[in-house]
Design a protein that fits this description.
Length: 410
């Protein structure tokens, strides 16, 4: 069952979002959008057919009360001033659409449409993922040529009690992508962070897959510290309950209609024969290896997306280095030695940033390379900005990634 993608744009102070003529004019004035129809439907919503960069959508606009529930996740940091605005706003603009095609592009287009309709929002409440997104983040993401990370499409929610270590992890938001939701039963407070990574990795694979990932299908998830691999699969939650007879959370009594429909528990296949016979293994059997620095799968497309965003926003790294009290580090892709080039064309290594000069970055190597000879920890070199594939700004209060530059944007 596919869920609509409903977002509520929460205005900072303007009343223009209540005027349909202003909204239509905002769409007409933007060169990316072409409005095909704009009319009131039977539910007193404005139904708009439009294209953005040639992609066709139908969206529905409505005035919605702004009530931020306790379970909404604050996915971004908000200033004291923004929090005060959020506490006063009572009405926002609902922007609803149904995703078709690549959900990553649909999400990107939806936040771009919101940014065009209401240029100055303090926040956006993303209903399917139960997240509150910063208006500053949204404005930067909408203007970027790089799509937001797939993790914005969903949230992994943790349910636990005070008298037990048990944690029930489950997602919200994947249904709007036309996918089933994921969960892990009988996690605990020592391993739930690793289990979170297992769910997130599986969700990314499902979102990125053109063919889809069917329940029961084996999916490579991570390299484990003991040299084995973790192969996960999705099992309908009612069937999975048979493996967890003593759990406290995630049982039938804990589930409303939403948490019952299209929810699948993650389990593992111990070997190839088990995957053929559909013999499932609990993730708890991998607990020691999952908490010992496993290497989770990151797709080529996601690596390229992260690298593109790091390069697009490198001016923020330069600004921080030159103006803020912070430490800056950058990951740089170095060409590997010829004997390794067939398998790894580049090795991506962290450097402490020492400066910028003539459009290049100066960095001190912080780790020994595996596939690049002639350099060692402590060596200082000058590299092209186009070779930067990631970076971090580290302050006393926080760490700022390329995705977090709204924190220092003016």
């Amino acid at each position: 069952m596919q869920e609509d993608s409903m977002m509520i744009a929460i205005p900072r102070d303007s009343e223009d979002f209540k005027d349909p003529e202003v909204l239509k004019n905002n769409l007409d004035a933007n060169e990316s959008t072409n409005v095909l129809s704009f009319e009131l439907d039977q539910y007193e919503r404005f139904e708009i057919k439009l294209t953005i960069d040639g992609r066709l959508y139908t969206i529905w606009l409505s005035l919605e009360p702004v009530e931020i529930p306790r379970f909404i996740r604050m996915d971004h940091q908000f200033s004291k001033k923004d929090v005060e605005v959020l506490q006063k706003v009572t009405l926002g603009l609902g922007v609803n659409m149904i995703y078709n095609g690549d959900s990553r592009i649909c999400f990107y287009d939806q936040i771009r449409i919101i940014n065009i309709l209401v240029p100055d929002v303090v926040a956006v409440m993303d209903i399917p993922s139960e997240k509150l997104l910063s208006g500053k983040w949204l404005a930067l993401a909408a203007q970027s040529k790089v799509m937001p990370a797939p993790r914005y499409l969903f949230t992994v929610q943790a349910v636990y009690g005070d008298e037990t270590d048990e944690v029930w992890l489950h997602t919200h938001g994947l249904k709007r992508c036309g996918l089933y939701e994921l969960e892990i039963l009988d996690s605990n407070k020592d391993s739930y962070e690793a289990h979170y990574q297992v769910i997130e990795t599986m969700a990314y694979i499902m979102i990125e897959s053109e063919e889809g990932v069917n329940p029961g299908e084996p999916v490579f998830n991570a390299h484990l510290s003991n040299g084995d691999i973790l192969v996960t699969t999705a099992v309908e939650w009612k069937e999975a309950l048979h493996f967890y007879p003593d759990i406290k959370f995630g049982k039938n009594d804990d589930r409303d209609e939403y948490h019952s429909d299209d929810y699948y528990a993650l389990m593992a296949y111990a070997n190839y024969d088990d995957s053929e016979m559909k013999i499932y293994t609990k993730l708890q059997d991998y607990e020691n290896d999952l908490t010992d620095n496993p290497v989770f799968l990151v797709s080529t497309s996601e690596t390229e997306r992260m690298s593109a965003l790091a390069r697009e926003r490198i001016s923020y790294l330069i600004f921080a280095f030159e103006n803020l009290d912070c430490k800056c580090v950058a990951k740089i892709g170095l060409e590997t030695d010829p004997e390794y080039r067939e398998e790894n064309e580049k090795e991506h290594i962290w450097f402490d940033v020492k400066g910028f000069k003539d459009g290049k970055i100066i960095g001190e190597l912080t780790q020994e390379p595996y596939f690049v000879s002639g350099i060692k920890i402590g060596d200082v070199g000058t590299y092209s900005l186009s070779d930067v594939t990631d970076w971090l700004i580290l302050t006393e209060e926080t760490r700022i990634t390329p995705d977090d530059v709204y924190l220092i944007a003016k």
